Fold this protein.
Amino acid sequence: MNETHAAGYAYGLWPLVITNIALFAGFLLSFAKPRSKVEWRSLGLFASFIVALFVEMYGFPLTVYLLVSWLGNRYPVAEPFSHANGHLLGVFFGIRSDHGTVLHLASNLLIIGGAMIVARGWSAIHQAQGRLVTTGPYAYVRHPQYIGFIAVILGFLVQWPTLVTLLMAPILILRYVRLAKREEAEVFKQYPEEYRAYMDRVPAWFPKR
């Protein structure tokens, strides 16, 4: 590796990868601690996305390696392995999400807002102690926790899109939609009359105006 390439290589920062994963996991768990198998499963799916994201952001730039191998000298940056040039929106569309930009602020709002929705959803479930949950965020939509996870995923996609996370995101979102339908069917069996009235009153994904 020559000096120019070494100077422009901003990856292999594995302590930073581990630190970011641990910090975000701790941040999310400080708001809500999953107790049921379904909650742990949904968190596990989300954790796989977060690991893939930070590994590519600071560890091993798989996306950049693939694009350079496919495009060669046509990759539209002089130093593809510098950290800034790993951001696909900036490289191909000139849309930066540096700290302080509107895009970066919007992505942070999605991430923080989504995490808070997940936390409030779990809190409402635990406070209900086995009863049908219709309070808190469940008063506005029937699947607030999954909406929160999806918001965080979209926020990270805006902040640092990679080929891996772009592939994982729709799979995770579809998985959450299926989990929501399966859970809803189980709750409907347990509370048929109450849940039918709840479904008539509260939308599944998008709150009423």
Remarks:
- Residues 35 and 126 are 9 Å apart (CA to CA).
